[in-house]
Task: structure prediction
Amino acid sequence: MTDVIGIDHIYIAVNDLTRSERFYDIVMDVLGFKKNTFQIAGDAHVQYFNRHFGYVLRPARTAIAHDSYAPGLHHFCFRVETEADVRNAAQALAERHILVSEPRRFPEYAEDYFAFFFADPDGIRLEVTNYRRERRERHDRWPAV
Result:
């Protein structure tokens, strides 16, 4: 059996690369990502990356709006270490004029689930959550889980 060890990268197609790059420059700076740009087949790409994975923007080829409840991506969630990190990220984004929900506990998801939500310029829903006990145990006790 193949053991997948992580997410390598995710590609997000955006309607206006310049507008999205301005937005993600703020978000990814707050979340500690680095940035580079490159081209594939003449299309500009913007890649944000950290030690764990890359988050790449590329130009969309159609202008259909994102619908979280249509088949496809519902939302993308970034994990940070602690509840304090969630609060700090929300505050830093809000200070940079990114509209975020109030960070709070979501006991309907898990007892220690703490998160906030926001959306990118194309309406893609984004989330920042803490590294919860269940996720830590799954990681630390694998494959015994």
Observations:
- The first strand starts at residue 9 and ends at 14.
- The mean pLDDT is 95.
- Strands lie at 9-14, 34-40, 43-49, 54-59, 75-80, 104-105, 114-119, 125-130.
- The radius of gyration is 16 Å.
